[in-house]
Design a protein that fits this description.
Length: 262
């Protein structure tokens, strides 16, 4: 197996190359939520159509978003942060890893659900965003758990909630948004295995079955879990239905927030 990283355009570049590859099962992609469900709501011109140009094999992983604040923010709970934001509308600043990314959309969902105003500062990736959060230049952010895990465990950042249904074993003391009375604020970066749409069903199923077997192995689950991620491994039908639901859900958030990429 040869691993080729094709970065660019929120995952669209690499995923587009899979959609346009020979449908022989020899080109397989790990596609993110941005490429399969989000960008279709953000861009007028997509280089491929996720649900027609790709065969969706299985969801590989789910990486919940975690809401954190800097040490200087006088809020120790989600309720306290919402109250603080309502008392200071438009004064608290949140960082994201880029316009239209999951950290951005998760915060927009929080703003809509809680009725608060926050100022958005998009960064060109997680590292500079986290650095400015640690330095007190911005007050809060949502991000993938692996990005913030070390800073939360060391006490440099304060975790207020995890956007998931269940708590994460690596951070068992951090409550979920569901537990805190805001189940609608579920947000995770997820990844799935895809091939070109015309790939023959027997080949696609052989690839899917092998991936699911690996994802259900205890050592793989444990490795994912130690980094704040959840191994999935489901049917093609389940994954396809999930992508459709996520496309619609984040489409509503994007429309309400008025986000658009050129």
């Amino acid at each position: 197996m040869v691993i080729e990283n094709r970065a660019g355009a929120g995952g669209l570049t690499g995923t587009a190359s899979v959609a346009k590859a020979d449908p022989d099962g020899h080109t397989i992609g790990i596609a993110a939520s941005s490429a399969l469900a989000i960008n279709v709501n953000l861009r007028d011109n997509m280089p491929f159509r996720p649900l027609t140009d790709l065969r969706l094999l299985t969801q590989v992983a789910s990486v919940p978003e975690i809401l954190v604040v800097g040490e200087g923010v006088p809020a120790r709970t989600l309720a306290e942060f919402i109250a603080l934001a309502k008392a200071q509308p438009g004064r608290l600043v949140f960082a994201s890893t880029g316009l239209g990314g999951m950290p951005h959309l998760a915060t927009e969902l929080l703003k809509i659900s809680a009725g608060i105003e926050l100022v958005h500062v998009p960064y060109t990736g997680a590292a500079p965003a986290v650095n400015d959060l640690l330095g007190g230049h911005v007050q809060m952010m949502f991000a993938d758990i692996p990005v913030l895990l070390g800073a939360v465990q060391s006490g440099k950042l304060r975790a207020l909630a995890i956007g998931a249904k269940a708590r994460i074993p690596t951070l068992p003391y951090v409550a979920t948004t569901s537990e805190l009375g805001m189940p609608q604020i579920e947000a995770d970066n997820w990844y799935g295995l895809v091939v070109a749409a015309a790939t023959p069903a027997p080949i696609a199923e052989k690839l899917r079955a092998a991936a699911v077997e690996a994802l259900h192995a205890a050592e793989v689950k444990d490795k994912f879990q130690s980094q704040g991620a959840l191994a999935v491994g489901n049917s093609s039908e389940e994954f396809t239905a999930y992508v459709k639901a996520e496309t619609e859900r984040w489409g509503r958030v994007i429309a309400t927030a008025g986000i658009k990429l050129k």
